[in-house]
Specification:
Layout (H helix, E strand, L loop, with lengths): L1 E10 L6 H12 L2 E6 L5 E8 H14 L4 E10 L7 E4 L2
Parallel strand pairs: 2-5
Antiparallel strand pairs: 1-3, 1-4, 2-3
Length: 91
Amino acid sequence: MKKRIHVYYSGRVQGVGFRFTAEAIAIDLGVYGWTKNLPDGRVELVCEGKEEDLNKLLDRIDKQLSGYIRRKDVKWQPYSGEFKDFQIRFF
């Protein structure tokens, strides 16, 4: 079943390659969406794909960036099919 996740990461998550790591993992797993830095120091991530792949994405991000993540807020949402690739957003 396909789903969507909307995640906010906080901690020391900017300036450490967080978005590029998330992008590489997402592309490897074949999930689509985007990630961006927020003005308040958090990183926002929105992805869609198979539920099992989204769980793998979350797990791999946690493992690879555990030293930087203090908190993760995940909301599961219905799949929309709006994404065709994965992007790092800069706005």
